[in-house]
Design goal:
Aminopeptidase; 8 strands; binds coenzyme A
Length: 178
């Protein structure tokens, strides 16, 4: 997969599957986005893996028949990452779970929109998949709006899904039939 597009700020961007050699930059990216927002499950420490461990994760996605880990690049810089994860377990292999983040300086340029569009199109074409699920912090209105734009429906709330500095945050659970 290699999708080229222009962001609405006129940047030439490309979206492709991440590969092992991206590992160092992925770890740096996760520290940056983790420090830029508290809506994610990670903070400025990122995921605290070493390069070999990150390479293994990327490689597992790359070799998986359906799951995907995609990055959006402007020049050589990773500006967004989305993961699309499908279990191999027989009774839940029709479900994909999705997560997306964009570096703050590239917000509102339709990059998150494009990443979701690609993953949804991919899911629609894959006969094994019937549903995409996600969990989003209930006060993350930008992300909720992004998901609603793509047709995701709210199905319920998971209380106290995140605990941050002693305060609890609920998660909205959303789904899309594909
Ligand atoms: C949520 C996030 C992925 C959106 O990415 P983005 O590239 O900035 O979003 P886009 O420019 O593609 O916007 C697409 C739609 O999302 C919604 N949206 C995005 N940013 C928004 C904002 N600040 N306020 C309101 N709606 C917003 C809108 O519906 C927008 O459509 P519109 O431009 O026609 O109004 C990005 O803000 C982000 O990475 N946030 C931090 C990480 C995060 O919260 N990830 C989701 C975890 S579940």
């Amino acid at each position: 997969m290699n999708v080229e597009f222009k962001t609405n700020m006129g940047h030439q961007a490309s979206i492709r599957e991440l590969i092992k050699s991206d590992a160092k930059q992925v770890l740096e990216y996760l520290k940056i986005v983790g420090g830029e927002t508290n809506y994610l499950l990670i903070d400025e420490r990122g995921i605290e893996l070493n390069i070999n461990e990150e390479e293994d994760i990327i490689d597992r996605y790359f070799k998986h028949p359906i799951s995907l880990l995609i990055g959006c690049f402007i020049g050589d810089e990773i500006v967004a990452i989305a993961n699309f994860t499908v279990s191999d377990k027989l009774r839940i292999r029709h479900i994909a779970k999705v997560g997306v983040s964009v570096k703050k300086k590239f917000w509102r340029q339709k990059i998150g929109y494009k990443m979701m569009e690609i993953l949804i199109d991919y899911a629609k074409k894959n006969h094994q998949l019937n549903i995409i699920q996600l969990a989003v912090r209930a006060d993350n209105f930008s992300a909720i709006s992004l998901y609603e734009t793509h047709g995701f429906k709210y199905v319920g709330t998971m209380p106290k899904a995140m605990k941050l500095e002693g305060k609890f945050y609920d998660h909205n659970l959303m789904f899309l039939d594909v």
